[in-house]
Amino acid sequence: MEGDAIVGTASLGRDQVHAVFVHPARQGRGIGRRLMEAVESEARARGERELILYASLRAVAFYEANGWRAVREHRDGGARLVVMTKHLGE
Fold first, then answer.
1. Which domain, by its residues, includes 45?
2. pLDDT tens digit string along 43-86?
3. What does the alpha-carbon distance between residue 15 and residue 12 come to, in Å, rounded to a whole number?
4. Residue 18: closest CA among 81, 87, 69
5. Position 58 in a domain
6. 42 touches 12 (CB < 8 A)
7. Number of structural domains, the chain?
8. How confident is the model at residue 90 (pLDDT cuts 50, 70, 90)?
């Protein structure tokens, strides 16, 4: 949040990260990194050891820079996505 405005969001469903979004005008300011840190922290607290997500091709570099690993490509209709995982440790 910045004031009353939502500038980013992310959600966690069991071991899968969903709906990661940062407003384009706010990208590059660490918001996405902080959102992912919060999601990963919550997953660890729940006892998850590994997370998975489906990334757009544009987002792969962001996730890789934050410790995620590309596993394979996935097609969802016409969209090309990359399945990525991150080991959370003990």
1. 8-87
2. 999 999 999 999 999 999 999 999 999 999 998 888 899 999 99
3. 7
4. 81
5. yes
6. yes
7. 1
8. low
The token pair at 61 is 């570099």
CA distances from 48 to 5, 16, 35, 39 (A): 31, 10, 17, 11
* Any domain includes 1: no
Give the E-state strand segments of the chain in sequence order: 8-13, 16-22, 50-56, 69-76, 79-87
The C-alpha angle with vertex 64 and arms to 19 and 18, in degrees rounded to 5, equals 10
C-alpha angle with apex 8: 86 to 27, nearest 5 degrees? 85
DSSP SS3 for 48: coil
Each residue of 26-38: pLDDT tens digit? 999 999 999 999 9
Q: How many residues in total does the chain contain? A: 90
Q: Which two tokens stand for residue 71?
A: 């596993």
Beta bridge partners of 72: 83
Question: Hunting for tokens 């009353």 — which residue is that?
Answer: 4
